[in-house]
Design goal:
There is one protein chain. The protein is mainly α and 182 residues long. β1 and β2 form a beta hairpin. It starts with 9 loop residues before the first strand and ends with a helix. α3 crosses α4.
């Protein structure tokens, strides 16, 4: 392929050797009108979205996921190209199976860890938001005074209010990414 047609990503005028080296440098996820499909759509879409988030935070996860998908395609191509079931090399198949199992176990462990982290942070933010909402109902003047004293909390409250109003789950993932990189 002609090199002038290849996609290249640069950092400080230095090209990345592989595009995956750029993943996680700017840990943000874009939310669009199609994001609603994460709620209404298939679980495959949600898994892919979660995978994209975790890949930005964990290079090992990214590498394992790439290797797993590549190995899965190789195994499937091997099975598809085998003329009959008698021609399948059991040792070859077991090798694929063992490597896929190891990668899958690692991927699941990392995914579970990050989902638990997200859930804990989400619950903490939700409780905090609920607490502040109740205080606002009890005494509006005190909340306004607290907001003036805590500028950063004011920004978080505005973000949380807007985020919960529009796309609660999706937007909380952005906050999670932002906090985990600090």
């Amino acid at each position: 392929m002609n090199e002038k047609y290849l996609k290249k990503i640069f950092e400080n005028d230095t090209p990345y050797k592989k595009i995956k080296d750029h993943i996680g440098k700017i840990p943000y996820v874009f939310i669009t009108s199609y994001t609603i499909n994460l709620i209404r759509g298939y679980s495959k879409q949600r898994r892919k979205f979660i995978d994209m988030l975790i890949c930005q935070l964990n290079k090992n996860y990214l590498n394992n996921l790439i290797t797993y998908n590549k190995l899965l395609k190789q195994r499937n191509a091997y099975l598809k190209n085998t003329l009959s079931i008698e021609n399948i090399d059991i040792n070859q198949l077991n090798t694929y199976k063992e490597r896929l199992f190891i990668l899958n176990t690692s991927i699941k462990t990392i995914r579970k860890k990050h989902i638990n982290l997200f859930t804990n942070r989400f619950n903490k933010i939700s409780k905090h938001y609920l607490s502040l909402t109740l205080r606002l109902q009890l005494n509006t003047y005190q909340i306004l005074k607290i907001k003036k004293e805590l500028n950063s909390m004011k920004m978080i409250l505005k973000m949380i209010f807007i985020l919960i109003k529009h796309h609660l789950v999706h937007t909380m993932m952005i906050i999670y990414l932002k906090w985990t990189t600090n």
